[in-house]
Specification:
By secondary structure, the protein is an all-alpha fold. The protein has 17 helices and four strands.
């Protein structure tokens, strides 16, 4: 069994050096996570973490966005059948980042994910920017996922002969829409589950995961017999430009494995189970994605694929109307589990940043009974519900992707910095091929960011500027490191 670290909390004092580059030692991070007022309940196993990862990954990306990635839109060309290569490119990018995440998560098994890792390596300012963009990633993703859930839910109601009024399913300004009520309701229901406990959330997610895995297996089994290989030609109708642009879109379909690391403080054996949860969920989803992409593009010509419900409509177009209904039901289940894990990730980032003093202390409050960060859960649930009800889905996927890719870049850089600054620190999981893997990870992430529309870059810079202003006016002044010494304490191994 891996040795634990005996941590002595540092004495309080004044931080020296430039506050922008002050780092939080691993010892302090671990000590803060163990403080009684902020301690979370450890209940998650490797199975739970893998289920959470799959639950977060498989959802909107494969059930909705794959259509746009194949066909293209006004801003970029589509990949056509080359979508299979797009999934491989995005999967490789995520795998490179996942190796860095796994080493970090095993070393620093606390809430906060990339934010916490950046705080330990790159300094407070870059940590703040990482956390700020994780808020963008999870927050916008939650809104997009909730709206996607509402769309599929309404389709199921129509199949049953029921239909909600238009005004109750569309945001203001959308031809008479008032509010997307189903989207808001599902967010509030998920909020209640998350307040009760992460174990209960994991159990609910794992149950849903089994349903959507069965649905995807059903699609593969039924669709295989109807594949016409002639539909795979031309394989890349718009060349590599289409494949690259599609890879930047379907990257959204992989977002979620990183959310596993945000639950580190609630894992029973994080050093062993976090890497298992990250890699197992990513590997399973990659195989399924490539299989679905191959079958979908083989069922109908790529130009005829419905961008709104591509998987279900693909079956319907070849005569499997009953199969389309089953897939639509699975999509609702799949998107629900994504929402659970994305909101969980958002909440843990709020919690970690608040615990460090960079956000208000109210957000790091822990429920006395359930031992969950209930204040952060309330804020996330209400904010996401309001936005899901009142705004269109718009460019949500692109904004989520650029925030995530930025965080991945900093994680890849951070792991190299930590290998240099803390070479002897115990590493329960050690990333191979250092520094090749993180360097390739940085280049791959920047490559996918290059293919995102220029408007997404503008929105990203605006969001970043707002974050800098918030840090300058609040975070820098209230940071708990401001009254602590910048020097790190020694680590003394303690036998397990």
């Amino acid at each position: 069994m891996t040795a634990d670290l005996e941590v002595t909390p540092p004495e309080r004092g004044h931080c020296v050096g430039n506050p922008l580059f002050r780092t939080k030692s691993i010892e302090r991070i671990l000590a803060d996570s163990d403080a009684p007022e902020h301690r979370l309940k450890r209940t998650l196993t490797a199975w739970d973490l893998t289920g959470l990862g799959i639950g977060a990954i498989i959802g909107t990306g494969i059930f909705v966005l794959i259509g746009t990635a194949i066909v293209g839109d006004a801003h970029r060309p589509g990949a056509g059948p080359g979508i299979m290569l797009s999934f491989i490119l995005s999967g490789i990018t995520c795998a490179l980042a996942a190796l860095c995440y796994a080493e970090f998560a095993a070393m620093i098994p606390v809430a906060g994910s990339a934010y916490t890792y950046s705080y330990a390596t790159l300094g407070e300012f870059l940590a703040w920017l990482t956390g700020w963009n994780l808020i963008l990633e999870y927050g916008v993703a939650c809104v997009a996922v909730a709206i996607g859930w509402s769309g599929y839910f309404n389709n199921i109601l129509k199949l049953c002969g029921l239909e909600l009024p238009y005004w109750a399913t569309h945001p203001p300004g959308a031809d008479g829409g008032i509010a997307n009520i189903p989207a808001a309701i599902i967010v509030l229901l998920v909020t209640c589950i998350l307040i009760v406990g992460v174990k209960e959330s994991a159990r609910a997610t794992c149950g849903i995961v089994l349903i959507k895995l069965a649905v995807i297996a059903f699609f593969i089994a039924v669709g295989t017999s109807s594949v016409d290989t002639a539909n795979w030609s031309p394989f890349m109708p718009f060349g590599f430009a289409g494949v690259g642009a599609a890879a930047a879109i379907v990257f959204f379909a992989y977002i979620g494995f990183d959310a596993v690391s945000t639950t580190a403080e609630e894992a029973k054996n994080p050093q062993r189970d976090l890497p298992i949860g990250i890699f197992a969920s990513l590997a399973i989803c990659t195989v399924l994605y490539i299989s679905v992409a191959a079958i979908l593009t083989g069922l109908v010509p790529y130009s005829q694929i419905d961008v709104h419900a591509p998987v279900a409509e693909g079956l319907r177009m070849v005569g499997f109307k009953w199969g389309a209904a089953i897939v639509a039901t699975g999509a609702v289940a799949g998107i629900t589990s994504v929402l659970v894990v994305m909101m969980l990730g958002q909440i843990r980032v709020f919690f970690a940043m608040s615990r460090d003093g960079l956000l208000g202390p109210w957000l790091s409050g822990v429920h006395p009974k359930f031992r969950t960060p209930h204040h952060a859960t309330y804020l996330t649930g209400v904010a996401v519900a309001i936005m899901a009800a009142l705004i269109p889905i718009g460019e949500a996927a692109d904004m989520t992707n650029i925030g995530t890719l930025f965080a991945f870049v900093l994680v890849c850089i951070g792991i190299m910095v930590l290998r240099y600054t803390k070479p002897n620190h115990p590493r329960p999981f050690r990333m191979p091929f250092m520094p090749v893997v993180p360097i390739l990870g940085v280049l791959a992430c920047l490559g996918l960011m290059y293919f995102l529309p220029w408007m997404t870059w503008i929105r990203f810079f605006v969001w970043t500027i707002i974050g800098v202003l918030v840090y300058a006016t609040y975070g820098m002044r209230h940071s708990k490191l401001a009254t602590r010494p910048s020097t790190e304490q020694s680590e003394t191994p303690r036998p397990a």
